[in-house]
Amino acid sequence: MRNVSxxxxxxxxxxGGQAGLAMSYQLKQREIDHIVLEKNSIAHSWKTQRxxxxxxxxxNWQCQLxxxxxxxxxxxxxxxxxxxxxxxxxxAKQIGAPVRExxxxxxxxxxxxxxxxxxxxxxxxxxxxxxxxxxxxxxxxVPRISEKLSPAIVQVHSSAYRNPGQLPEGEVxxxxxxxxxxxxxxDLHLSGRKVHLAVGSAPRCPRVYRGRDAVEWLDDLGQYDxxxxxxxxxxxxRKNANHYLTGRDGGRDIDLRRFAAEGMRLYGxxxxxxxxxxxxxxxxTTNLDNADRVYxxxxxxxxxxxxxxxxxxxxxxxxxxxxxxxAPVHTLDPTAAGITSIIWTTGFRSDWSWIDLPxxxxxxxxxxxxxxxxxxxxYVLGLPWLHTWGSGRFVGVGRDAGFVADAIEKRQAVRFNAxxxxxxxxxxxxx
Length: 431
Hints:
8-stranded mixed β-sheet, alpha/beta, 8 helices, EC 1.-.-.-, Putative oxidoreductase CzcO, 5-stranded parallel β-sheet, flavin adenine dinucleotide binding, FAD/NAD(P)-binding domain
């Protein structure tokens, strides 16, 4: 493979977040030369796409990037946004990751000379192998129905929300009840703002149950190590919303019913806007009941584990609703209701348009098995449920990176052996 003025590398990692850094660590352990190209800066999304009061929902002890376990003094606490940034930045320094910041890759394609060609804001690179460590959250997703709303209503995507003070006075509608939606709704609620919440189908999880954080119980049960192939939903689990709970103020449940009892207005899923009026589905009761069913299902899973292993743990009853919806609201005039701003916590869309390689399925998702794609020498890392529930988290990305690094090392050995045989044959012909 060619090497033009230091622009060729055995491995190029695209993305300098925790996945790309974990990949760099694993390659360094195997003495495989590589470079990490990061279009912004290390920990960029943690710095710029999280609100002021943001914190992890998983305990600090789960921050287990390879070669760099959580270094702080509060393993059962929950790191705040700036602490997370510091953790990732210090990891990059600790491992000496060869990161080039401010380099955006604009095209990845096969190189006619072999391997791959990468066009970037810093010119062209070539590589034998490429690791796509860019997550799947690329473009803020705001539904087109937002275009039907009055221009007087301020609209903000969750990635741009910082604190209640950035919004105009008045009531706030939060659309979406995944982790971000519920935590932002809580942030506004605790500040004294009047909040309306369009509730979707995301499940919820207990924070503490029978004397321990639920994450500790689930870790003991091997839930974070369960391969996608063994999950009841198989690959469909990759599209599931994460359970909502919070690490705020030491960690607690998020109970939307309790919020409603305290004055938060809950609705079903927002499905349309007609003549400026918000249209909600008649599924609020179903969505709340299903979230509670998952919550109590996790409690039952823990109960069974405790009984099966004769563990001494305090008794605790399962969750019982503290509030139930009355007549559903199907239509709401936001202006008449005093709503002056809307926060869209509706996730992100993937953008793989810059990759000119046949590695995607019909939905645009990279086809892979544990990060090894269907295109030779191209890998993905850091996606939710890449291999296990822990794959998209600090706790599991290092193991996935190790698997991919092993695959790269094997491919390098194959190329080396092929080159050796070819060179021997050439010598024999010349003799």
